[in-house]
Design goal:
Layout (H helix, E strand, L loop, with lengths): L16 E11 L2 E8 L4 E7 L4 E6 L8 E14 L2 E10 L4 E8 L8 E7 L5 E5 L5 E5 L2 E5 L6 E3 L24
Antiparallel strand pairs: 1-2, 2-3, 3-4, 5-6, 6-7, 7-8, 9-10, 10-11, 11-12
């Protein structure tokens, strides 16, 4: 039942946060945002919806080290096989287009970040991962699913993509409905 005056303040947030990006992901009961502190360092800000607490998760040192300076086209958080991931696309020092995928294997443990670097053609937009770990990306030919292990690309035949920006991570589930 909804009631009036049910809003409350939760926090506190760190005073060093100067920017929180609009895009977020929801994994294991928490919302995750990329944020930046006053020193210009990016980190992940999480909000656990169960205990209503914020937490700052540090990214690996030099997490964009594969890219030449100032050639990271874009980066965003994603859900990779049920785990929190950071995906970035850009150009390396040899001017090759790359995708780097950082996956946090153990929640909240900075040392558990693992890196996978994948060569890709120029990516215009990243929409997320499929359940089996394929990237859903927009390239010049349209929307493709791209397998980072085999490097196989499957053109999905989708050209008009405005609606894809409104899709959250898809996960199948069976729910028993008690009548």
């Amino acid at each position: 039942m909804l009631s009036t005056d049910s809003w409350r303040t939760v926090g506190p947030l760190s005073g060093s946060i100067v920017e929180i990006e609009d895009d977020f992901v929801f994994v294991n009961g928490a919302l995750y945002y990329l944020a930046r502190n006053t020193e210009g360092r990016k980190f992940i800000l999480s909000f656990d919806v169960n205990d209503e607490r914020f937490q700052e998760i540090m990214l690996p040192d030099d997490y964009l080290g594969e890219f030449s300076p100032h050639f990271c086209n874009f980066e965003q958080l994603a859900v990779f096989k049920g785990l929190l991931a950071l995906v970035a696309f850009g150009t390396d020092l040899d001017e090759e287009d790359l995708c780097i995928i950082w996956v946090m294997r153990e929640y909240g443990v900075i040392e558990s970040w693992t890196l996978d670097t994948v060569p890709v053609d120029y990516v215009e937009m990243f929409y997320g991962f499929t359940d089996n770990g394929e990237l859903l990306i927009e390239v010049k030919s349209g929307i493709v699913s791209f397998d980072p292990d085999s490097l196989n690309e499957n053109n999905l035949g989708i050209q008009y993509t405005i609606w894809l920006g409104y899709i959250n991570d898809f996960m199948e589930s069976l729910v028993l409905v008690d009548e």
